[in-house]
Amino acid sequence: MIRAIYPGSFDPVTFGHMDIIQRSAKLVDELIVGVLNNRAKSPSFTIEERVEMLREVTSGIPNVEITAFQGLSVDFARDCKANVMVRGLRAVTDFDYELQLAQTNKIMCPQVDTMFLTTSLEYAYLSSTTVREVAAYGGDITRFVPSVVVEKVKTKMRKLEKENAI
């Protein structure tokens, strides 16, 4: 059985993330999407909100499970008894960073292999940061995130705007 993890911040989940989730779920028996609770970052959405969004948008994919984690992705893989870590690549700059990370992870946990999937061309430009920035200025994000996420992002941006106006 091939059990894989796909770790990330997903702040918020985008069509690019969904592309990687859908494609990798077809290649493995079980895919655990790990939502990183990174203390070094200040995400717009709480860990609970990000987990819930992902559960909503992946509910139709039977072999996908969503869970939160903190710490190193390689430790998360070990804890999940996963033998594959899925990573998405948008550009050459992603590859340099991800290759170094994969090699480090292989030294730390030799039983976990990293599987790189290039993002489909239609999403190669897309990032959660871009989505948040466009939304913060009132732009249309319907081409970037699943429909259930659109209103959540807009609501969050309005809330953050009010908090920052004080």
Write the layout of secondary structure elements.
Elements: E1 3-8, H1 15-27, E2 30-36, H2 47-57, E3 64-69, H3 73-79, E4 84-89, H4 92-108, E5 113-118, H5 128-136, H6 147-165
Parallel strand pairs: 1-2, 1-4, 2-3, 4-5
Structural commentary:
There is one protein chain. This protein has six helices and five strands. With 166 residues, the protein is α/β, with parallel strands linked by helices. The protein has a single domain, classed as HUPs (Rossmann fold, 3-Layer(aba) Sandwich). The longest helix is centred in the C-terminal third of the chain and has 19 residues. The chain starts with a strand and ends with a helix. Its EC number is 2.7.7.3. Belongs to the bacterial CoaD family. Its cofactor is Mg(2+).
Spans of at least 5 consecutive residues with low confidence? none
The CATH topology: Rossmann fold
Strands of the widest sheet, in order across it, are: 3-2-1-4-5
Number of strands: 5
Gyration radius, rounded:
16 Å
Number of domains: 1
Subcellular location: Cytoplasm
EC number: 2.7.7.3
Domain Cytidyltransferase-like: 5-133
InterPro entries: Cyt_trans-like (IPR004821), PPAT (IPR001980), Rossmann-like_a/b/a_fold (IPR014729)
Task: Name its key features.
single chain; 166 residues; alpha/beta; Rossmann fold; 5-stranded parallel beta sheet; 5 strands; 19% strand; cytoplasm; coenzyme a biosynthesis
TL;DR of this structure?
The chain is an alpha/beta fold and 166 residues long. It has helices at 15-27, 47-57, 73-79, 92-108, 128-136, 147-165, and strands at 3-8, 30-36, 64-69, 84-89, 113-118. It contains six helices and five strands, in the order βαβαβαβαβαα.
